[in-house]
Design brief:
- It is a single chain.
- By secondary structure, the protein is of the alpha/beta class.
- Helix content is 31%, strand content 18%.
- It is built from nine helices and eleven strands.
- The longest helix is centred in the first third of the chain and has 16 residues.
- The structure holds ligand BJW and zinc ion (ZN).
- The site of zinc ion (ZN) has 8 residues, from loops.
Length: 273
């Protein structure tokens, strides 16, 4: 038939070789082999909570200490982790295509910074970063790599605790704005459920998607909007979409030109190598 077999790596290599403008959309699955838990599925719990319970403005208003414990833990996990073979293969492909005058851009839903640590330069962080804070009072966004982020969080945030939770950390002892004139409460610079994405970030992502001639979708369940609409939008233009995932994502399966089932630490280097 005219339509190549979904798992035909040779056919993919032909399409990849001819592409001039590649956009890669990544999700939590690209970092799974670095030991960072994904959101949906068994590893998605912290204590008795799911990310959807804690990654909201309401949760932060109700219990900023609990939400900071959750983010402190995840910052420490990310700082102790390293980019894996999938991140490295993407960074390598960007260098190679760029040298050839071709475009290669990553749009990531991840907040772990591992694409940049692997050496990727063209990265759009749709959902913000674990390593940035935003002041609730003056609005300043800052990079923050402190470990722990504040003394009161040292040793806190363990995902499994025996017995009752320790008392909440008083607000004054949570991460605070470093401007002496401000001292406002800081929050993670992350897009929580129900919050809009930054306009400039979304514009950038949309213009990249509008120009690509090949789209790779790696390690995302494709259920969280607006990112969940990206693959359908490019496929609508007739652009081939290739998915790399250990499981089939029902929301995008019917529009795929290629589907490589398996851990992306193996499939992505093979596809881009
Ligand atoms: C492997 C692998 C391996 C494993 N190799 N693969 C339209 C319709 C319906 C609802 C909405 C809508 N528009 C907006 C909404 C509401 C909401 C939403 O989408 N809800 C859905 C759940 C229905 N969206 C929003 O609130 C967004 N805001 C917005 O649109 O504002 C305007 C608006 C608001 C309200 C109404 C209407 C408009 C903001 C979304 C922000 C998402 N934030 C989070 C949390 C960040 C905080 C944090 O990190 O703490 O971002 S949610 C969470 O999900 C995180 C992720 O970036 C995001 C996506 O998850 P991802 O990456 O796909 O991970 P998983 O775990 O789901 O999947 C992992 C995949 O990897 C799986 O497929 C595995 O199989 C695979 N895998 N190992 C390859 N080794
Ligand atoms: Zn401030």
């Amino acid at each position: 038939s005219a339509r190549a077999c979904l798992s035909d790596m040779k056919a993919f290599h032909e399409v990849f070789k001819k592409s001039k403008n590649v956009v890669v959309l990544t999700g939590a699955g690209v970092s799974a082999e670095s030991g960072i838990p994904t959101f949906r599925g068994a590893g998605g719990f912290w204590r008795t909570y799911q990310a959807t319970d804690l990654a909201t403005p309401t949760a932060f208003k109700r219990d900023p200490s609990l939400v900071w414990e959750f983010y402190h833990y995840r910052r420490e996990v990310v700082m102790a982790s390293s980019p894996n073979k999938a991140h490295n293969a993407l960074a390598e492909a960007e260098r190679r295509l760029t040298a050839e005058g071709r475009q290669f851009n990553i749009i990531t839903q991840n907040v772990d910074g591992l694409h940049a640590r692997a050496g990727s330069l063209n990265v759009v962080e749709l959902h913000g970063s674990l390593m940035k804070t935003r002041c609730l009072k003056c609005g300043e966004v800052r990079v923050n790599n402190d470990s722990p982020i504040c003394e009161a969080l040292r040793g806190r945030g363990l995902p499994k605790i025996e017995g009752p939770s320790p008392p909440a950390i008083p607000s004054e002892e949570l991460p605070r704005c470093q401007k002496a004139s401000c001292k406002g409460l800081l929050r993670p610079h992350i897009v929580w459920f129900g919050e809009g994405l930054e306009r400039s970030v979304l514009d950038k992502a949309e213009s990249l998607l509008a120009e690509c001639d090949l789209c790779l979708v790696i390690g995302t369940s494709s259920v969280v909007y607006p990112a969940a609409a990206f693959a359908p939008t490019v496929a609508e233009r007739g652009v081939p979409v290739a998915e790399f995932n250990v499981e089939d994502s029902p929301t995008i399966h019917d529009l795929l030109a290629f589907y490589f089932k398996g851990p992306c630490g193996s499939t992505v280097p093979e596809a881009l190598g």
